[in-house]
Amino acid sequence: MKNENRSTCINHTVSEINTFEHLPDGHVIKTLVEEHAHILSMLDELKENSDQLRNTDLIDRERSLKQINHLVVKIISAEPHHQREERVLFPALEDLGITEPPQCMVMEHEIMRKIKKDLNLMIVKDHFIPKNMIEIQDLVEKLCSILRNHIQKENTVLFPLALQMIKDDSQWSRMREECDNIGYCCFCPQTKKEYDQSVLMA
Ligand SMILES: [Fe+2]
């Protein structure tokens, strides 16, 4: 990704995070938004490595493939993030009669799970030897596009809607407990630190 595009993305993400700044640390929505920022930076890195596959040097291409797989595995490990949305946030919205947007988000989760799995399988089965460059680049493009779009919809539509509809702080506390039981993402050390501290203080 070109530097100017990346900085636009980062500025956009920063302004989205600012929208949720008033929420207490560890709030269900604030944590999800912080995780989105981590996922977006991994997507930038994924795209950069995918572009490197055009490199004619075989060793460089193998190195990029390994890095792509490493990032895909990290993005696959975002499953607790999706589980918290699917098992805690979306059902709370559905209880309030908001059914279509959560269903649409779940459908997109499923599509992305398949792309991530396909990418991982395709790279590992060829033992990191660059064979299907075009297919891998296409899948990376597809994943980046769907996931960026998905995050944008959650940050700008679904999460503000949830904050507007769920006014009761005690409901958010109960939802936080359910989220704690599901767990957090390994790539988000800040979240993990805050979570560990909150457990120690409880
Ligand atoms: Fe999300």
Structure description:
The chain has a single domain (3-193), classed as nmb1532 protein domain like (Four Helix Bundle (Hemerythrin (Met), subunit A), Up-down Bundle), CATH 1.20.120. With 202 residues, the protein is mainly α. It is 81% helix and 0% strand. The protein has helices at residues 3-19, 28-52, 58-76, 79-95, 100-125, 133-165, 169-182, 189-201. 23% of the residues are buried. Fe (ii) ion is lined by residues 32, 36, 81, 85, 154.
From the alpha carbons, calculate the radius of gyration and give it in angstroms: 18 Å
Mean pLDDT: 86
Tally of extended strands? 0
Point out poorly predicted stretches. Answer: 1-12
Q: How many structural units, i.e. domains?
A: 1
Report the CATH C-level class: Mainly Alpha
Features of the shown structure:
mainly alpha, Four Helix Bundle (Hemerythrin (Met), subunit A), 81% helix, elongated, disordered N terminus, binds fe (ii) ion
Brief characterization of the structure:
With 202 residues, the chain is mainly α. The protein is built from eight helices and no strands. It has helices spanning 3-19, 28-52, 58-76, 79-95, 100-125, 133-165, 169-182, 189-201.
Which secondary structure elements does this structure contain, and how are they paired or packed?
Blueprint: H1 3-19, H2 28-52, H3 58-76, H4 79-95, H5 100-125, H6 133-165, H7 169-182, H8 189-201
Helix pairs in contact: 1-2, 2-3, 2-6, 3-5, 4-5, 4-7, 5-6
The protein binds fe (ii) ion.
